[in-house]
TrEMBL record:
Keyword Membrane: yes
Gene Ontology molecular function: 2',3'-cyclic GMP-AMP binding; 3',2'-cyclic GMP-AMP binding; cyclic-di-GMP binding
Gene: Dyak\GE19307
Record domain STING ligand-binding: where: 170-355
Species annotation: Drosophila yakuba
Location of this chain's protein in the cell: Membrane
GO CC entries: autophagosome; endoplasmic reticulum membrane
Statement: the UniProt record of this protein carries the keyword Transmembrane: yes
STING transmembrane domain ranges (all copies): 54-168
Name this protein carries in UniProt: Uncharacterized protein, isoform A
Swiss-Prot/TrEMBL GO biological process terms: antibacterial innate immune response; antiviral innate immune response; autophagosome assembly; cellular response to virus; cGAS/STING signaling pathway; positive regulation of antimicrobial peptide biosynthetic process; positive regulation of macroautophagy; positive regulation of type I interferon production
Alphabetically ordered keywords of this record: Membrane, Transmembrane, Transmembrane helix
Length: 364
């Protein structure tokens, strides 16, 4: 009897153990299924969040472009009725529309990207309502108009970026263009044996001297002021190059280039330089000091104007074949790191030695 009980007990324990194992396996499977379901829900919500973000972004951008279009139409009407005298009567409407509806390249790229994304979403879902702005989105359009009329996006930094762009409409580019086309392009190229190279060669032969830089050196200091006579312990004023008279708008104007002599020998030789300051920069300096023309924008952005003047002038000089090898613009800080004034003679000497070294390296 006792052995039967023990046998029954062992059988019961065995089946109990099997039920336990089956329960554990069932729990593990349920846990695995629950984990998979949770991951699936996360992926579903993540995809939904990305899709909703894309749809909302398309709607927001579409609202902005629509608000901008209405604003441009409003400005067209305002320009036509209030400022029509600035246009010729025969093409007034066309010019105003063309100016108002012109977009920059970045805006065009953004608009094309918006259309591609919108068409893709419509092709996937088959429902254009997912990307079309609703009345709620359109109700926010006045915020864009307020932003535009108040110029909240404008700052002094915006003006700096505008000056740096290559549109040629800023003050610096205008000064450089006038200086190049009204002076350098006229007086320097060879026409009837009266160009800069010819006059410098005649000057060297007549006076038995050598120019350190075989070009016209134009000084462009950051303070924009250059004296009528260059002040330097290394330079002495010499006789200028031969005066050239050129007909400009019916008037024969004299063009003269100053020459300076270095009063110390370099490699046993005295060198001469045809050098002058950039006169437009001096005019800009005078305009900043005058109460009649000075503005805070000129004072604030004078370094931007100085750098843009040099950049645009050098681009014009190197682009035009007749002046490419005739001008050496030198931009520099008027004072060193210790506040001492930079000597123009030392600047010319360092530039001459650098040019000579570069030529030797090319030759070798």
């Amino acid at each position: 009897m006792q052995s039967f009980r023990e046998l029954f007990k062992s059988i019961w324990q065995h089946f109990s153990h099997m039920d336990g194992l089956m329960a554990i396996a069932s729990n593990e499977k349920e846990a695995e299924n629950a984990t998979r379901a949770q991951k699936g829900r996360k992926c579903f919500y993540l995809r939904k969040m990305i899709v909703d973000y894309i749809d909302t972004s398309v709607r927001v951008l579409a609202t902005v472009f629509f608000a901008d279009l209405l604003l441009r139409i409003y400005r067209c009407v305002l320009e036509y009725w209030c400022n029509g005298r600035y246009y010729l009567p025969q093409d007034r409407l066309w010019v105003i529309l063309r100016r108002s509806c012109t977009y920059n390249s970045r805006s065009i790229y953004l608009l094309v990207g918006l259309l591609l994304v919108a068409f893709f979403r419509i092709s996937v879902t088959g429902n254009y309502r997912d990307v079309v702005p609703t009345a709620l989105f359109l109700a926010y359009m006045p915020l864009y108009w307020i932003w535009s009329f108040s110029d909240l996006g404008q700052s002094t930094l915006s003006y700096s970026h505008w000056i740096r762009d290559s549109h040629g409409l800023d003050y610096a580019a205008g000064m450089a263009s006038n200086y190049f086309h009204g002076y350098l392009k006229l007086s320097l190229p060879e026409r009837e044996n009266d160009g800069l190279k010819h006059r410098m060669a005649v000057y060297e032969d007549t006076n038995n001297i050598t120019f350190g830089i075989n070009r016209l050196v134009i000084l462009i200091p950051d303070e924009m002021f250059v004296n009528g006579v260059l002040e330097s312990k290394l330079l002495d004023k010499a006789e200028p190059l031969e005066t050239q008279f050129i007909n400009r708008a019916g008037v024969y104007r004299p063009f003269k280039h100053a020459v300076y002599r270095m009063n110390k020998k370099v490699n046993g030789k005295i060198y001469y330089f045809a050098v002058e300051g950039a006169t437009p920069m001096l005019s800009f300096f005078d305009s900043m000091e005058s109460n009649l023309s000075a503005t805070w924008q000129m004072q604030e952005l004078k370094r931007e104007i100085w750098l843009k003047f040099y950049k645009h002038l050098k681009e014009l000089i190197t682009t035009w074949p007749e002046t490419r090898d005739l001008v050496e613009p030198i931009i520099y800080n008027s004072h060193d790191s210790k506040g001492n004034r930079v000597d123009v003679g030392e600047l010319l000497l360092a530039h001459m030695q650098y040019k000579t070294k570069s030529i030797d390296e090319i030759s070798n």
